[in-house]
Amino acid sequence: MSKELINLVDISKSYDGEIVLDELNLNIHENEFLTLLGPSGCGKTTTLRILGGFVTPDMGRVVFDNQDITTLPPNKRQLNTVFQKYALFSHMNIAENIAFGLKIKNKPKTYINDKIKYALKLVNLEGFEKRMPDSLSGGQQQRIAIARAIVNEPKVLLLDEPLGALDLKLRQDMQYELIRLKNELGITFIYVTHDQEEALTMSDTIVVMNQGYIQQVGTPETIYNEPENAFVADFIGDSNIIDAVMLEDKLVSILGVRFACVDIGFGRNRPVDVVIRPEDVELVTPEEGALQGMVTHLIFKGVHYEMEVMAGGFEWLVHSTGMFPVGTKVGIKVDPFNIQIMNKPASEDEEAAAIEE
Amino acid sequence: MKNNGLTGKLLSSPYIVWAVIFIIVPLGMVFYYGLTDKTGAFTIDNVTAIMSAEHAKALWISLGLSLISTMICFFLAYPLAAILANMNVSQHSFIVLIFILPMWMNFLLRTLAWQALLEKTGVINNILAFFHLPALNIINTPYAIILGMVYNFLPFMVLPIYNSLVKIDPNVVNAAKDLGANRIQTFFKITLPLSIPGIISGITMVFIPALTTFVISKLLGGSKILLIGNVIEEEFTQAGNWHLGSGLSIVLMIFIIVNMAASAIFDKDGEGSLL
């Protein structure tokens, strides 16, 4: 992994007595696409605003390139932000918008003009110099907002739900666009979103947050395949989260039935949560299955069928390319490496704290 | 939905009748009287009468005093509007209330109150005399008129500017800071240009009533200072010369139309408007 660029150290922040961030620690590397992912109110936007300098943390330090920048105002920081809803300057044309930061820094005119051309080319909007922001579509405005930020050659680009206002198709196109941009620029992207699919598509590292705590940090594959707790499992994609008991290493009892698994080190007879992704649940004949049940719902989803199967007193969510009509008696089979074991929080309140470690 | 047009016309008819009787017809009468002489023959003498020394002087004083008042209003109103725009809703609604409270009182009454306050033996001078301080002698001077104009028209400057300031997305201001602008640069490059519609609207709403007023000058300026509004009023009520009064009104109307046109150019979306 390349060298660390930003360290957030014990960051806490509360508004009107409500804790938004609680002793958050996070290291961000050079040239990384890092996504802060979580539901609204999880503290992801506050984290971004602390990085941008718009919010000062109550406690803790922001270290950028080995320098403490906690109290440095936004205009003195080497990072630029792409805001939600673009925040373009509506009284300036596109060229003036892009030139804004460079003019403030008194760059020479030829340098500014070259930069405008370069940035517009980079975001595929050549020849838009004289247009006004209001005459552009949402996607185009978003590209201009990115262009306006990157001409300043920041080491880090902060993106605050930049695609939130766009429609689905455009959002998917822009995701690829952002990955391409990040690779061409070779700088760090810190991206905030509540959209798990967006996070999985674009990120090198995903930071899943909830209630002011980091729930899990990892690559998209790790986050999806090995969620550390029920929140992460539930937030990232669909999943079956089931109460279970870890009997011994590599053996778990789910709904009273013994399943082989690959996890070790949970001790004996320990209550745990088990996560099984819907596409990992295999439907077979009742005789072949470890559990027997009946299909209760069936929906065609295009790529696959989504079914609900009542088995062992639990409603299993199943994604499969094979179709089983409602009422079919089926067996359920799960491969050992598709069973993800997670520690059970002792109570709802301790959930976040326990996860923090 | 063919009926909609008809229903719309039907519903708007009371207002159309109102507008015709109280706006269109009087306006037509002003133009009729202004452009005819006592025999009913066409003439532009009533309009060109503005060139006479006495009338021109009144027009210049009016323009001067209303320009000064508008400027004072602007410099008082902008900081106030900016402070209000940065407050949260529960705080600012109270201050806005305090601010517009005097507006609910009769305009004439407020001006009369100032007369009572400013008089040679009025409230202010009684208090000053009690503390053995020199008396304030501004009643019947241009200063008193400017004071009256500023006091009466200030809210009309604050509200449009406030409206245009609260409409600025805080992230636009943040973006300017993010791109390296300090507070002063952010204000002059972002906030001020984005509030121009409100400023233009505020200037219009202060300048036009100030230019045309005759009550403030009558009550606070005594009979010493004649504004163009007083001249027109006297032509109608004392001299009984409706033709000359209308002719001078047409001149005044030209100033108003120029001002309105300017504000329409700068405020295309009507976003700076008061309501």
Under CATH, the topology of chain B can be stated as: MetI-like fold
How does the overall form of chain B come out from the CA principal axes?
A: globular
Radius of gyration of chain B: 23 Å
Our measurement of the CA-to-CA distance between the termini of chain A, rounded to an integer number of angstroms, reads 22 Å
Helix content of chain A: 25-40%
* Structural shape of chain A: elongated
Q: Greatest interface and its residue counts?
A: A-B, 23 and 18 residues
Continuous helix count of chain B:
13
CATH architecture call of chain B: Orthogonal Bundle
The CATH topology of the largest domain in chain A corresponds to Rossmann fold
Main sheet makeup of chain A? 6 strands, mixed
Ends of chain B: how far apart?
Answer: 31 Å
Number of domains of chain A: 2
Notable characteristics:
heterodimer; A: alpha+beta; OB fold (Dihydrolipoamide Acetyltransferase, E2P); 2 domains; 9 helices; 35% strand; elongated; B: mainly alpha; 13 helices
Architecture overview:
The complex is a heterodimer of chains A (357) and B (275). Chain A is of the alpha+beta class and 357 residues long. Chain A is built from 9 helices and 20 strands. In chain A, strand 4 and strand 5 (67-68) form a beta hairpin. Mean pLDDT of chain A is 90; it is low at 347-351 and 353-357. Chain B has one domain (52-266): MetI-like fold, CATH 1.10.3720.10. In chain B, helix 3 packs parallel to helix 7 (142-166) and helix 3 runs antiparallel to helix 10. The interface between A and B is medium-sized, with 23 and 18 residues.
What's the arrangement of secondary structure elements?
The complex is a heterodimer of chains A (357) and B (275).
Chain A: E1 4-15, E2 18-29, E3 33-37, H1 44-52, E4 59-64, E5 67-68, E6 79-82, H2 94-104, H3 109-122, H4 138-150, E7 156-160, H5 168-185, E8 188-193, H6 196-202, E9 205-210, E10 213-218, H7 220-225, H8 230-235, E11 240-248, E12 251-254, E13 257-260, E14 270-276, E15 282-284, E16 291-300, E17 305-311, E18 314-320, E19 329-333, E20 340-343, H9 348-356
Helix pairs in contact in A: 2-3, 2-4, 3-4
Chain B: H1 3-34, H2 45-48, H3 53-86, H4 89-100, H5 107-118, H6 123-130, H7 142-166, H8 170-178, H9 183-194, H10 196-212, H11 215-220, H12 228-237, H13 242-266
Helix pairs in contact in B: 1-13, 3-7, 3-10, 7-10, 8-9, 10-13, 12-13
